[in-house]
Amino acid sequence: MSPRANAIRTGIQRGWTEFNLSLRSPQDQGFFIFMALFVVGFLFFNRDNEVEGTTLLYPTVAMPSILGALVAFSMIIGPAYVIAMEREDGTLLRAKAVPNGVLGQVTGHVVSNTLGILPSFVVILIPGLFLFPGLMSNGAQGWFTVLWVTLLGILATLPIGMIIGSLAPGVQKVGTWGMLPFFFLTAISGIFFPIQGLWQWLQVVAQGFPLYWLGMGMRSAFLPDAAATLEVDGSWRTGWTVLALALWATAGLLVAPVVIRRMARRQSGSQVEAAREQALQWVR
Amino acid sequence: MSSDTSKPRVATADGRSNEERVVTVRGLRMRYGSVDVLDGVEFDIRRGEVVTLLGPNGAGKTTTIEILEGFRVASDGEVRVLGADPTRGDEEWRARVGVVLQSWRDHARWTPRDLLSHLGRYYLPYSTPDRSRPYGVEQLISMVGIEEQAEQKIRTLSGGQRRRLDVAVGIIGRPELLFLDEPTAGFDPQARREFHDLVHRLSDLEDTTILLTTHDLDEAEKLADRILILAAGHIVADGSADQLARQVTREAEVRWSRNGEKFVHSTPDATGYVRNLLAQHDDIADLEVRRATLEDTYIAMVQQHETGHPGQAVSAFEEVEK
User: Fold this and answer.
1) Which of A47, A50, A151, B72 is the most buried (most CB within 10 A)?
2) For residue range B228-243, what is the model confidence (pLDDT) as tens digits?
3) ipTM associated with this complex
4) Same structural domain, B250 and B106
5) Distance from the A154 Cα atom to the nearest Cα atom in chain B, whole angstroms
6) Is some CB atom of chain B closer than 8 A to the CB atom of A86?
7) Is residue B125 a contact partner of residue A2, using CB atoms and an 8 Å limit?
8) Which residues of chain A neighbour B103 with C-beta distances below 8 Å?
9) Into how many domains does chain B fold?
10) pLDDT by residue (tens digit) across B262-290?
11) What is the pLDDT of residues B99-115, one digit of tens each?
């Protein structure tokens, strides 16, 4: 086996190990439960609200959008924090010190983050399907759409998370560079309310980012075709969804390796040492 | 060191062996802003040697080692490590080099056994008939003495246990050349001795070339075939512990007082000096003669170079009159 193929295989095993460790970690379990309570609780309190101009209930429309946002959140904010942290705590330096280690490390991130979306979906969808009947209008075909939208969405957004994590000056800065723009984008991407109420230029901005298309792709999977009247164009624009997400994926897959390589090249023990000292200072 | 048959050493005119040079450093400079941390560092390391790099904090030991590891780009100079420029070393080169890192809190959820077997897998394609890679995980665990912690989460390990794991990770690929930056910081005396045994074993049995930094002069003396002292951006001393010790024991310090005034004088011939002193004066009191230790030379060398009086002959004690 070639060294690179070996490193990718080792990275896949790494991702699997990380995923398992995460499932068993009280910290991560806490995050999943908190998130599920938050999302399901929010929808439950709005369970009787009808969406204006339709007979659909609010949870039916918001749940798919939230799942789309969740994919983006898990692929952007999660990896951004993890990579920024691994630059500071020496994980990346370890990878750099072994042959093809950075390749394995990145492979591991792809695998563990992709798998990591499963528990999030499970803890939200299972109670959701019980509490909000009629959530899925399109049967097996709808679930198939959920699958491809999720996979394409991962490809479109995971590189963004890795790039932010590689460029952020430190873990604390991921909040400014990652969280803030993400929450702003969520607010304008039609996740919690349709975007037609926004200024025209803001609608254009929102449609330039993958988050909008992830939400719309998910709505097209769950909602009846009649609900497309709620969308900007009165249709699901499936072709546009594929195109937009594929463009982001291509751009990400072109840029991320360059950024990650550059970041890894600059990583040194002194950097880790400096981060350690700063952390000690910070705690004090 | 191993027997002479396995490592023939050919003495040359300058008294040094003529073996393959694993590390060559010429005119190495590292500049941060307008400050030259390293200003023309030069040294060689030959195959199978154990070399200790000593120097005060901030002298650039870590910078030097990071440049050799390929983790940092030098401002100027020529550096060859295992025949390659470390900044351009490919993955095959990387597989031949071991780096012991000062870890902090990485892989907190992993167990030492899982981490070692994971990191070892990267070395599988680089195994050769005379150097099988990686080490067996169980062999490594017992080599560094963390059998009891092998299944614990890494975050529950003590500082010393973590350092042992760091060493295990550093040598997992059976490196030809190993870098250790302050490997024994935080070790208790027993762990320190076990670590010394491990270094000897790597050097003798595996023919590993080792460069390590330390603040412990005793450790340097025990481990190193050769000691380099880095101060004020240069290598100010380069020799075996014996050679440095000879430089020291050449001189002794004589202290005395006369009329309530204290005197100190250093001399290569303490006996003769004292005889003369007592013959000249009959009111000498508090007479004391002390041989310099390795610590004394080290401190004298470093002080001289840091206060900007290099070039003058190194002497362990400067003549002081108070």
Assistant:
1) B72
2) 999 888 898 898 877 7
3) 0.90
4) no
5) 25
6) yes
7) yes
8) 90, 94
9) 2
10) 998 888 888 899 999 999 988 888 898 87
11) 998 777 899 999 999 99
